Structure formats: C-alpha cells, structure tokens
Amino acid sequence: MPALELAGEDTASPPEKTLFGKYEVGRLLGYGAFAKVYHARDVHTEQSVAIKAISKQRILKGGLAANVKREISIMRRLRHPNIVRLLEVLANKKKIYFVLEFAKGGELFAKVAKSRFSEDLSRRYFQQLISAIGYCHSRGVYHRDLKPENLLLDENWNLKVTDFGLSALTEQIRPDGLLHTLCGTPAYVAPEILLKKGYDGAKVDIWSCGIILFVLNSGYLPFNDPNLMVMYKKICNGEFRVPRWTSPDLKRLLSRLLDTNPQTRITVDEIVNDPWFKIGYKDVKFHHDYLELKDEDDEEDDSGGSSSSGSSSGGDNLKMMNAFDIISFSSGYKLSGLFDEVEDGERFLSTATPEEIMETVVAVAEGEGLTVVTRKEWCVKVVGGHSCNFVMVVELKRLTEELVVVEVRMRESVVGPSNRIWKDKIRPGLNCLIYKTGPAG
Ligand code: ADE
After folding, report:
1. Which domain holds residue 226?
2. pLDDT of amino acid 167
3. Do 93 and 138 sit in the same domain of this protein?
4. Looking at the DSSP assignment, which residues form a beta bridge with residue 99?
5. Entry pTM
6. What is the CA(154)–ligand 1 centre distance, in A?
7. Does residue 316 belong to any structural domain of this protein?
C-alpha cells in the first residue's frame, strides 16, 4: 500500500495501510506539483473517497496559512451536484488530508480527447459547469484554476468540478515552497493574468469556461503553440478561430466568453440568458442554507452520491471533534493561527454539560429578545435584531469527557448594529460558560 506522501518529499517513512484507522488507501489517482491524490475506502462504510495530501510545511513556508484556513472553511460549505464535496479534513503533524467525494468516471477530458463532443453534449457539460461556477460566484468563491484535471465525471457521467476554493493554494505553491503566480500550461489562463494586471476572480473563471467550451466542441485548444511566448501572444490578442461545424449561436457565445477585455466579457447572469446556453437548461434548486442546522450525516445529498461528512457522532448525538478540529486547538502542531479561528464568530471551551450550555444560550438569547428558530440537541439557531438580520448558530462538539467546544457562528452580513447584539448582549451572558477562550476570543 503506498504511503500518502507528497511529490518530491522524502518517502522513506513506512507506508501507511490505513489513514487514521478510517481510510484504506489505494491507488494513486493523480498528482500535482505539491500534492498527491489517492483513491481510498472508508473502512466502516466502504464508501470510495479521494484523498489529497498536502504538506503543512509548504503551506507555512509559502505564507499561505490564512488562505488555507479560509478556503477550507468555504469548501466545507459548498454543496452543489456539480462540485466535488469536501467531506472531511484530517491532519497530522506533517500533512493536511482533504477527504473528497470520489468521482468514479475520471477526467472529462480523457473522454473529449478520444473524440470531440456534439454541440448538445458540449452544451450539457457547459451548463453543468456554469451552474457550479454561478453557485460559487454568488457566494464569493472563485476557482481561478479551472483546467482539464479539475473537471471530473461521476458514475452517472455528470460533471464534478474539483478543487473549488483550494486554488488559492494549488495555483501558487511549487515544490520549492515559493509563491508563483503562474505554473503549468497557460492555455486556460486569462489574458489579464498573463499581463499581470491584477484580476477579478469571476472574470478569470469565465475565460477558462470559454476555453473549456471551445475544447468540448472542437477537440482542440483555441490558443496553442509549441512556443510559450507565441501562445501568450495569441491569448492576449484573442486570436482564435472556431471550427467550421460550430453553429452561429455557439460562435457568438464563444466570442463573448473569450473576450480579452474582462470588463466587457460576458457574466454568469448573461450566460444563463444566452440563446445557445438556455436550450434545455434547468438550474439546480438549493435547500441548503449557509447556516443550516441539519445533521450532516442525515443530509440528503444533492448529487445522490456520497454521504458522510465531518466529525462522526460515534454513538453520541454530540459530535466528536475530528483530528482537524483538535489540531486547531493544539499549539504543539504549530498550527495556531492556521485553523483555530472561526470566521464570523467565536469558539471556546466549556466544562459545563451540553444541556447546561444549551439552556444558558437559549436563556441569554431569549432574554435579549431573540427568537429561537431551530433547536436540536447540540445545535441552536436564533434570529433577531432589526428586520431579523441577526442570525446566530451555536453548535456543540465534545472534545473530551470533560470538555465541550462551543462554536458560535454568525452570518457574514452581521455588521454594525447587529454585531453589537453579539458583542454587547449575547457574549457577556455566555462568559460563565467559558473554561478557556480560544485565540478567537
Ligand atoms: N482525482 C482527483 N480528485 C479526484 C476525485 N475527487 N475523484 C476521482 N479522481 C480524482
């Protein structure tokens, strides 16, 4: 069984058969400049997963700790049928492991390499891609590194975009641990990046989608040359020709996607209203709220595929923290400042029982005129404030027999007067519960 090691890293350590006693590691699926991806099987559920191993040292060397923390927290919340789910994040002293939904069908481009797709099939995949991109963009998440190896297929031949939100990481690190703005082929890279002008993540993704649509329809790249400098020039000048079988409507859309001027380039909203794109398009309806309280393990999966996620309950309704969560609290791993803050909220430890904690939270919230909208055994959601724009979720996780982690999250939009509800009213009322504040407190 191979060890989960990184490209270019010392592989002398003995191979691991299972990772954290939970995942049996199998064949290598792929590797990049700084990470390897393996097939693995959950030993309890037999579910297939993909595990991506990343070196902590390189992240820290590259000064990317804050990026990783942010990106993981975003990734964990992305739920879309055409996006590979981040199921779990595990970590040990040396590495971070992303446990990802497994896309059984492999790379989309392995299929297009055999023969170009019909216009209808190209449209179907492009619609799925835009649905995923639009979903992420509407949540302020940009891929910035859309390329063939990030487009996978599931067992039903549906598109799955991978590495969403992790690109800030993947695009910048090389084996030397230094930051680089450009690595690999520039064939999918927007002109404004090549021109080092500074860029808008949304516009850059749209450009890459244009390249992808072109390849699906034609079977080859719009901008290509063995000489990189010549390729750069073609990209920056927007010099491409569509193949003769391309319909006028598709040709028009491609020219709007591959507009070298990011300001005039088509937007996602415009794409979904495009006559070529619109044919047979049904966008996905979402029922997952950003701060939804559903137990992750119960959750209906939009993709109809994978299931479990995050920390497992282990027979106790109170979720146990996984390695990722525990390491967040461990200065021994020198990761403090990497994973220990909760964005838009706070996390602290308490020796009170979960029942006491919940009672206190509800009493303080109700005492301040907030309304409890959902209450579960280990999770509560309260709303209030001016036009109910204050939304707070308090979730408990058991760390040890004696210690419970209390995680308080608020909507990102909680600013100004709403934020005062937390700071001045709720937070002081919870002081009695705090055993030891985390760095966020
Ligand atoms: N290669 C990289 N990520 C993968 C995934 N999630 N599923 C299958 N193959 C992959």
Report:
1. 106-278
2. 57
3. no
4. 51, 88
5. 0.65
6. 10
7. no
